[in-house]
Predict the structure.
Amino acid sequence: MAFVMLLFLVSSCSEKHHKQPHDLKIAFLSDVHLQNLYGKLSDNDFKGVLNPENGRYVLGRTMEAQLHSTRLFNENYFAFLAALDDVVRRGVKYVVLPGDFSDDGQPLNVRGMQEILHEYEKQYGIQFIAITGNHDPVRPFAMDAGKTDYLGAGGKRQALMSREGMYSPKSEDENPVVITTDIHKMGYAEILAEMGDFGFFPKPSDIYWETPFSSYGYDDYSFEKALQDASLNKREYSVPPTNYNLPDVSYLEEPVEGLWLLAIDGNVYVPRESVAGDGADPENYNGASIGYNEVLTHKKHLLDWVRKVCREAKKRDKILITFSHFPMVEFYDDASPEIRKLFGDDKMELHRVPAEEVARTFADAGIKLHFGGHMHINDTGIRTYDDGKFLVNVQIPSLAAYISAYKLLTIHNANQMEVETVQLDSVPRFKELFPLYEREYAYLDSVKSPSTWNPDILATSSYHDYTAWHLKELVRLRFLKDDWPEDLREFFGNSTGKQMYDYVEAHSQNPESDSLLNIGDWTGMDLIYDFYRLRSADKLAIPDIGKERLAAYEDFFQEVKYAIPENGAEKRIVQLQDLAGIFEHLMNGAPADHFTINLSATDSILVSVN
C-alpha cells in the first residue's frame, strides 16, 4: 500500500512538473510613453489649458513639440486605451509592458499609468507585467526636471518646472512658469513604489518569482522569502568603473504554471567620466539609451543569471519567454553597414544597434525568443549559428508612432509560437485635442514663427493617417537635417523621380534602359519619406506606399546598380548605390507581420502566415 501511495505521489509530481500552457495569449505593448492628459497636480492649483470643445482641462504638450519628437506625447494616451480595449475584446489576460511606459518617469504620468492598469486589472482580470525602459527612470535616482512646451493659454507654450529658478521666460509674452514636483523625473525607488504591483514585486498568486540576487531556488520557494528578497536595497550591483551601487529590477515570474516570463532590466547608467563623489547623485550618470552593448560590459551579473534561468527552465520543462526594453538583434534588416557608410556612424540611431556579440552571448545562454522595444519600429531579427543555437528578436512598434501597433503572442505549445502584429487603425477620441492645436497654430502664425508646422495634419480622419503625418513632418522638420548629408538632401529635395532616373541613366551601362518608359509620378522627397516608412513599419508600410510606387523605386534602383561612378558623378552614384542596398535590405527582411516560430527547428525557424 505504501508503494502504491509513493507511486501515486511521484506520478502526481511528475504531471505537475510537466504541465505547460497551451494556446495562451500574451500582448506586448511597448513604448506607450503615457502623458497623463487629464491628471491633476498634487501640489499646484494649475489645471492645464481648457479645451473649448469639451470643457475639460488638459495637461498636454504642444503639436510643435510632438512633430520634433520620435513619439507623440498626447494622442498615444487614447491609443493606449484603444489597445487595452482591443486586448479585452480578444480575451487576453496577460499584458507585458517592455519599458518606456511613461514620458520621462514624472509622478504625474506614472500615477496615470498606475490608475489605468489597476482599472483594467480590476474590471477585466488582466495581469500586467512590466519592466523599466530608459525613460522610466531617466536616471537611477530622482532629479529635478521640467518641460517648456506644454499647451498653454492663448495658444502659447507653457513651462512646467519641478523647482524655482530652472527656467526664466524669454519674453513678457510668455505664460508664467508653473512650479510642481509632479514634473520631476523619478528614480527607481519612486517608480517601483507606484508600479510595484505589475511584476516588479512578487504576488501571492505567483507560482514562482525571483531576481538575480535571490537567496532561494525553485525547490525551496515561498512567497515570504520572495517578498523579503524583493526589497530594492537587496537588488543592487556595482557599476564599473566607480563601483557605485545601482538598482537592477530584473525578475523572473511564473504567473501561470509552466510559463516563465524573464524580465530583463537593460538600463545601464554609466558613471560620467572624471566625476567623483556622491553615487546617489543622478547628475553623475549618463542616460541609458544604448542597451545591451553596455549590459555586456557593465552588467555582467545579468549574464550569469540568465544562463542559470535558461538551465532551470530546460530542467523543469518551463516555456521561457524573455522581454526587455532594448533589442538583442540588429533591427534594420542587416542594413546597418550600408546605413553607416551612407549616413555616418552617429546617424540613424546606429549607436543603439546591438553588436553581434549581444545576440551570440544570449543565444549561448539559452535565450531563443526575446521581445524588445525602444526603437519605435516594427521588425523581426534572427540569428542562427552552426551549433544549432538561435535567437529571434521580435521588435515591438510603439503605440505613439508610425506604425502604431502591438504584438500578440500565442503560445500553442512548448515549441510552436505565433506572433501577430495588431495595428491600431481606429482610435476613438484621438482628435480630442485638435481645437487646442488649432489655437496653437493660429498663435504661431500670428507671430510669424519660423517653425510653424503643417496644419494639414489636423485634417486626418484616422489614427493611422495621423501617425503617418507625424512621421512625415518629423522627416521634414528633423530627420532631413539630422540624418542626411547636405548634398544628397539637396539632390533629392530638388528632383522629380524622372529627373533622378535620367541622371542615373546618363551614367548607366544597363542595356535595357531604353525599355523603361514610365518611372512614375514621385519626387525625391517622396522617396525619402517612404524610406522612413519602410524603416519604421517594415512591410506593413507597403499598402501606404503602394505597389506601383514600390515598383517604380525598384526600377530606379535597378538602374542605379548599373551606373558607373565616373565623369564627376562618383560621389553621387556611390551614395545612390548605398541607398539602393538599404532599400533592398528593408524589403527583404524576416517576416514582421504575422508569423510562426518553431523553437525546436534547426532551419525554417520563422514562417510567414499569409
About this structure: The radius of gyration is 26 Å. The mean pLDDT is 93. Residues 462-587 form one domain.
